Amino acid sequence: QGPPFGNAVVDSVTTVPAGSPANVGTWFDGTDVHFSFELPQGDPGEQGPGGEVSQGDLENAINLLTSNYTNGVTNLGLSPSDPPTQNDVQQIVDKLDELINALRR
Known about the structure:
Elements: E1 8-16, E2 23-28, E3 33-40, H1 55-70, H2 86-103
Parallel strand pairs: 1-3
Antiparallel strand pairs: 2-3
């Protein structure tokens, strides 16, 4: 039986070429046992099935659809008076309705 030790410490894990043997190196520093692992790369696997939608396709679709819905809504371009008049408020309401309808498509 060897001396007691404090910790098992992994110093490194290295990938070696496929077909190479796995190897573990150890050393004791008086307190901790240190490990260095060499693990062979696995053989290439078969191509998996494609996903339903890639992240890029999803982002492009969202960006295209959402901007196309609202591109036709022009800026309000209103400088309301202080206090706002009924006409100022009505223009804001009309523009908000236009935006809501564009987003519902």
